[in-house]
Sequence to fold (306 residues):
Amino acid sequence: MAETVSAGASGGVLGGRRSRQEAAWGYLLIAPVMLGFAVFFLIALGASFYLSFNKWDMLTSPVFNGLDNYRDVWRDGEFREALVNTLAITIPHIVLRLICAMGLAMALNSNIRFRSFYRMLFFLPVLTMPVAIGTIWKWLYDPAFGPINSFLRRFGLPEPEWLSNPRTAIAAVVIVLLWSGVGYDMVIYLAGLQTIPREYYEAASLDGAGAWQRFRDVTLPLLTPTIFFLSVIGIIYSLQVFDLVYVMTRIDQTNQLPTVVYYIYEEGFRNFRMGYAISVAWVLLLMILVFTFIQFRLQRRWVNYV
Fold:
C-alpha cells in the first residue's frame, strides 16, 4: 500500500514537473510574438493615448493641454462634415454589400457551369491593391474622358461630375467599395451556405415549401451568424475607409469627400496638429467600440446559432 502511494506521489511530481516544462516552452515560443505585440501595439497605444492630451506639432516637444483637444473635436465643423460623409458611405455600403454578396453566393452555390471560374472572377478584386483600384476607377469616372460618361453621352443621359460633387462622390465611392469587397463576403457566405444540412431543405420541400419559403425559413435564419460577422467587420472597415477616398476624390489638392480617417491624415501630416489628430483617432476608436458593442448586444435577438 505504501509502495502504491509512493509511486502515485512520484508520478504526480513527475507529471507536475513535465507540465511546468511544457508551459515554460510554450511561453518561450510565444515570447517573440508577445514582445512584438507589446512594443508595436501596447506601448504605441499608451503613447498615443498620452499624446492625445497634448498639443504637439511633431517638430517641438508635446505640451500638455488636458481635454482641450477632445473639446475641439466636437466643436470642429470639418470633423462633423467628415463624420457625416463617413456615415453616408457606411450605411448604403453595408446594406448593399450584404445583400449583393448573399445573392452572388446563392447563385454560385447552385449547380451551374463554370462555377469555380465565376467564384474566382468575383473574388479577384479583393486581391487588388486599393490604390490601383482607386486609380482605375478615377479614370472610369472622369467627366471628360472616362468611359462611364462616354456611355451616358451616347444615350443622351446626364453626365454627372462624379467625383467633384459630394453627393455623386458618395455614390461613386460606394460602388467601388462594393465592386472591391463583395467577393470577400461572397466567399464567407458560401462557407455558411455549405454548412446548412441538405436534410433541412428536403424536409421543407416535403412540407410543400417553395423556393422563397425555403430561403425565408431555412437559409436566412441559418445564415444569421454569417450576416452578423460580415456586418461587424464591414462597419469597422467602412468607418476607417481612407485609401480609396484619398486616391479618387482628391482633385487639385482638395478632397471633395473627406472622411474621418482622411481628416485625421490632413490634421496630423499636413496641418502638423498631431496631438489633435490623435484625439480624433481615439474618438473614432470609441465610435467603433460603441457600434460593435451595440451589434453584439442586439445579436442575441436575431442571430440563430444551431
About this structure: The first helix runs from residue 2 to 51. The chain is about 75% helix and 5% strand. The domain at 68-302 is CATH 1.10.3720.10 (MetI-like fold). The mean pLDDT is 88.
